[in-house]
TrEMBL record:
SUPFAM superfamilies: P-loop containing nucleoside triphosphate hydrolases. InterPro entries: AAA+_ATPase, ABC_transporter-like_ATP-bd, ABC_transporter-like_CS, P-loop_NTPase. This is ABC transporter ATP-binding protein. PROSITE patterns: ABC_TRANSPORTER_1, ABC_TRANSPORTER_2. It comes from Candidatus Odoribacter faecigallinarum.
Amino acid sequence: MKSVVSVQGICKSYGKVQALKELGFSVAPGELYGIIGPDGAGKTTLFRILTTLLLADAGRAEVLGLDVVKDYRAIRNRIGYMPGKFSLYQDLTVEENLHFFATVFNTTIEANYYLVEDIYKQLEPFKKRRAGKLSGGMKQKLALSCALIHKPEVLFLDEPTTGVDPVSRKEFWGMLLKLKQQGISIIVSTPYMDEATLCDRIALMQGGAFLQVDTPQAIVDRYPCTLWSVRSGQMHRLLGDLKACVGVESSFSFGTAFHVTLGNQTSPDELRAHLVALGHNAVEVEPIQPTVEDCFMLLSKNH
């Protein structure tokens, strides 16, 4: 089956800063593909190249079998793009924005209403409100509706849930899973590691390069060592003491605990005894299952 997105050796630099480093990957039809990484990883640059808004310095990219440089007009008619920054007309109402985008693509709201119905129903009470006056979650829903109204075959969403509340994030991902069921291929970028588990496959990205590409579960299963959760009654100085410990290979803050990996010569009992000797009490060292974020932190450290 032919890929809906195919990238080979894409490079892009801004002056001396190399934003993308010979990236190569493909996205299958109907796939929900996540590109996961922090700010500055190169996600937006990649999306702008794939949506024909930016030229790469080198390499080749195709969307729906069309070249992003030669066939940019045809690609723009067949994809939907939701940039990270809200980019609709803030002085137009909700209704006017949706009508405008339908008109641009020579269609009508009625023709493809079924695609946006679930989303637009939540917007309908505010359809006469100017877009600039909407909340973050409502702006997000309007932007997605406008990206869908011409029935795209591939949907590009660049950090769509950044800056919105947890409830809106959950609702938004529920919408994406429904769209996937309708056969739309979706490529989404996010800095939120917890959203990675909702994707079919993910690419962990840092510094313009992919660190690993696979299903979320396969990436977690590949974690190479035992991961330990460490707590003590002196959490304010625990991380510093962990980083200074010779037997600790990595230590990162995760919520109410620190996630730690140990060298082959150090046991959890030895770590516990070491921390007690440093004046820590109520020390807990327990094995835990790694998350995608743990995998990312380890890959970043090695990278």
